[in-house]
């Protein structure tokens, strides 16, 4: 049974755009745990007093507020939910300490290396630099393909997800980017980053992930992401720009 938002005292501050990778990641985690919450959209360009008081260091979204206490950064929020509500819904983190460490490593790699390479394709006007970013992104997908194969060796013989037979931390960490990867590929005119011939395990995983509960109701439409990129982040994306905001 889903716990009430008032009972749990959960509030989620998110960007009003509805396309935030990191907010959607947290929403998926909350859905996995079966937790209700108050959804509080914010304008990142006009930060509320609540946001500034809840995240005075980075002043970024999303922020989870539980019983009046704020938790910041999406990966940290997901781990917090797993620890604060251990008896609710499915576990987000693997039970085995080694597999937890591996999931954390790859989640950080996706945020810090893989996605910056991908969005960097739209971040330069120089053809060679764009080509280099494409190669970096494809190489990252290759590494994640290997990680998915290795996760099968560590657990179930035929793992459906990085988390095994069910979704877990790394699935959410990577999966929330899927519409962005596709939208960036469309805009840049690159071949699909997820290619069944090059990374068959990962391509099959992406199909399962996109159709899984509770992901299917929360994953952003690719057209909406593409519109956000072209109208907000890169209205003239051919021109080299500084690193974009991710809210």
UniProtKB/TrEMBL annotation:
InterPro entries named among the record's database cross-references: Glutathione-S-Trfase_C-like (IPR010987), Glutathione-S-Trfase_C_sf (IPR036282), Glutathione_S-Trfase (IPR040079), Glutathione_S-Trfase_N (IPR004045), GST_C_Tau (IPR045074), Omega/Tau-like (IPR045073), Thioredoxin-like_sf (IPR036249)
One GO cellular component term: cytoplasm
Keywords from the named record: Cytoplasm, Transferase
Enzyme Commission no: 2.5.1.18
Domain GST N-terminal residue range list: 10-89
GO molecular function: glutathione transferase activity
Transferase recorded as keyword: yes
Primary localisation category: cytoplasm
GO biological process, one term: glutathione metabolic process
Gene3D superfamilies reported for this sequence: 1.20.1050.10, Glutaredoxin
Domain GST C-terminal, first and last residues per copy: 96-232
Domain of life: Eukaryota
Enzyme class: transferase
Record's subcellular location: Cytoplasm, Cytosol
Function comment: Is involved in the conjugation of reduced glutathione to a wide number of exogenous and endogenous hydrophobic electrophiles.
UniProt record similarity statement: Belongs to the GST superfamily.
PANTHER family: GLUTATHIONE S-TRANSFERASE, GLUTATHIONE S-TRANSFERASE, GST, SUPERFAMILY, GST DOMAIN CONTAINING
Protein name: Glutathione S-transferase
Organism: Triticum aestivum (Wheat)
Biological classification of the source: Eukaryota, Viridiplantae, Streptophyta, Embryophyta, Tracheophyta
């Amino acid at each position: 049974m889903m716990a009430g938002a008032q009972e749990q005292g959960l509030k989620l501050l998110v960007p009003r755009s509805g396309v935030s990778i990191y907010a959607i990641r947290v929403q998926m985690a909350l859905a996995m745990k079966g937790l209700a919450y108050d959804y509080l959209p914010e304008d990142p360009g006009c930060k509320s007093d609540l946001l500034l008081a809840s995240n005075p260091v980075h002043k970024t979204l999303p922020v989870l507020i539980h019983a009046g206490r704020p938790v910041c950064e999406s990966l940290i929020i997901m781990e917090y939910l797993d620890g604060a509500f251990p008896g609710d819904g499915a576990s987000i983190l693997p039970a085995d300490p080694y597999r937890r460490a591996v999931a954390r490593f790859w989640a950080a790699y996706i945020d810090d290396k893989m996605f910056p390479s991908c969005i960097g394709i739209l971040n330069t006007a120089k053809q060679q630099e764009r080509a280099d970013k494409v190669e970096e992104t494809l190489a990252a997908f290759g590494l994640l393909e290997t990680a998915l194969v290795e996760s099968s060796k560590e657990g179930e013989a035929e793992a459906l997800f990085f988390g095994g037979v069910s979704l877990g931390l790394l699935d959410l960490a990577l999966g929330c980017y899927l519409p962005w990867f596709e939208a960036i590929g469309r805009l840049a005119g690159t071949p699909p980053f997820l290619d069944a011939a090059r990374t068959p395990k990962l391509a099959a995983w992406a199909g399962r992930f996109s159709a899984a509960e509770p992901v299917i109701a929360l994953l952003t439409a690719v057209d909406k992401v593409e519109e956000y990129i072209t109208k907000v982040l890169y209205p003239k994306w051919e021109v080299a720009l500084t690193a974009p905001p991710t809210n």
